[in-house]
Amino acid sequence: MSRGYFAALYEAGVPFALIDTRERREHVDGHWFGSTNMPLSSLARTITRLVPDRGFPVHLLDWQDRASGAAATLLSQLGYQQLTIHQTSRPATFGNGFVKGEYVWSKAFGEVVAHGVDFPEVTPDSYMRHHQGAPLFDVRPTAEYRQFTIPTSQSLPNSLLLANLTALRNTGKTALLHCAGRTRSIIGACTLKAAGYDGPFAVFRGGTQAWQLAGYDREHGADRRFATKDRGDDDVRGFLERWRITSHELTSGQLADFTAAHEGHLLFDVSDDSATGQVLVHGITRISGTNLIQQTDQSIARYHVPVVLFDHGSASRAAFAAFWLTAMGFGVQIVRLGAHVPQAPDPHFETRPNTAIPILSAGRMIERRQQQATLIDLRSSAAHAAQHLAGSAWRNISLMLNGAPDDRPVTLICGKTEDGCLAAELLTGHGWRVEGIYPWQDGDLPPSLLHSEPVDSPVDRSALFAGRHHGNLQDARDYLAWEEALPAQIDPLLHRMWHDHLARVLA
Question: Which of 221, 245, 249, 505 is least surrounded by Cβ atoms within 10 Å, i.e. has the fewest?
Fold first, then answer.
């Protein structure tokens, strides 16, 4: 794959998905900009959620290993018909579209915004000298705020800013916006500017990481929420008219017909500020607007597909997300609903490979352990570390496929039966002998047989800058420098397109 391939596809305006099926740590350590990470270990579930249409054009990155070949086989088995495979490899240096890190689309976009829009900034030292007493607002989701924040800060997620312009102005003081680094505070400040906010505000540069680098302690477990109130309908309509975003209302009874008529669109319910990606009925995903803008490349895998945002009340949350998705180049409309969209049943695979490998009960699994069978736990490393069957070893299917098969038959422990069947199908095709599958059930096995212990260097979790929120100041310093350097690493064409989109919505 050439360095400019993604930019060319994006400029062409044709629908596509660019999928990287390496495990999370490998992807974060270096990947092609614009690719969505769908690790082989969870590929079947992830792609059927993010790319449900089996006829959608999927571009698959082949890193010339067995795991990449297995991913292509699996996608074909799942019925994906427009599959294009691109052989690629890791360049010697970063830049020109090859980047490291996670949520790079959103973070690079945030830095482009920062370079294109003027807003005041405050450093930790200038805050301590000149701004103590000014209200601090943590614009991350409330759950992240509770983990750690700058002392005295109040929780005010980005998705609630438009609902609180009057309340912010009424404080009579300069509002200081911060996150854990740079991106979300930049987005928050530019949201205020785009909405015509006429009160004083500034970005707390570098957020909680800069605060620690300056030698100050964070606060943990804070629970101060800024009083929030939805703005009126006229206010929100004014924002949407200014930004040229369409909006209309539906009753709950009209929802099924609407989603059927918009099959293939990207459907998000942004009404819940704490939501992290739950699947709702009619193919709608519930996610906070703050996270949708922060984690765009992992929430939206299909490019050049229209977006529909559902919201309740005044739709101020949807207005926030719609503005920024439009600035990124997505076509967006808002639908206001009178009632919450219900949760869908736990999604399951529509396709399951045929296998004669037995599905084991808890009793049979205990017998396998007593017989000293080779037990491989294919669940996430976090799940294995929290609780696993004594004598089992954590393995990752990508690593297994790229290594030599064990001499002895193996018994697989998996999260769900379908996961185990898919894994067994792939492994047996590469010389492994699988003699049983055990779908893990909490409370199914005797506590005396359960252990907890960490997994060393798990490939399904990123280690890049991992200590930045845990006292490793060098990781924090490197992370902030990495964010600021992102615009120079993405394709200049995309850089220009983002500038153009942003200029249009701000005009």
Answer: 221
Helix (H) or strand (E) holding 243: helix 233-243
Q: Residue 346 and residue 413: Cα distance in Å, rounded?
A: 20
Rounded to 5 degrees, what angle do the CA atoms 415, 30, 498 make? 105
Residues 262 and 313 grouped into a single domain: yes
Q: Output phi, psi for 263, to 5 deg.
A: -60, 135
Residue 347, pLDDT score = 61
Q: Determine the pLDDT at residue 354.
A: 58
Q: What is the pLDDT of residue 353?
A: 57
| Residues in contact with 362: Cβ distance below 8 Å, sequence separation at least 6, in sequence order | 438, 441, 444, 445
For residue 35, what pLDDT is reported?
A: 94
Q: Which of 499, 501, 495 is nearest to 97 (CA)?
A: 495
The structural domain count of the chain equals: 4
CATH number for position 493:
3.40.250.10
In degrees, rounded to 5, the angle at the alpha carbon of residue 462 between the alpha carbons of residues 9 and 388 is 125
Work out whether strand 388-389 and strand 374-377 pair parallel, antiparallel, or are unpaired.
unpaired
Residue 437 and residue 466 in one domain? no
Interhelix angle 492-506/316-328, rounded to 10 degrees, is 140
In this structure, the number of other CB atoms found within 10 A of the CB of residue 191 comes to 22
Instruction: Give the whole-angstrom CA distance, residue 17 versus residue 436.
Output: 35
Count of other CB atoms within 10 angstroms of residue 461: 15
Residue-level pLDDT at 229: 65
Q: Which residue range(s) make up the domain with 153?
A: 114-213
Predicted local confidence at residue 465, as pLDDT: 95
- Answer yes or no: is 501 within a domain: yes
Spatial separation of the C-alpha atoms in residues 137 and 179, rounded to whole Å? 8
> Each residue of 326-364: b (16+ CB within 10 Å) or e?
bbbbbebbbbbbeeebeeeeeeebeeebeeebeebebee
Residues of the chain short of pLDDT 50, as ranges, are: none
Q: Hey, what are 3's tokens? A: 């360095």
CB count in 10 Å sphere of residue 419: 22
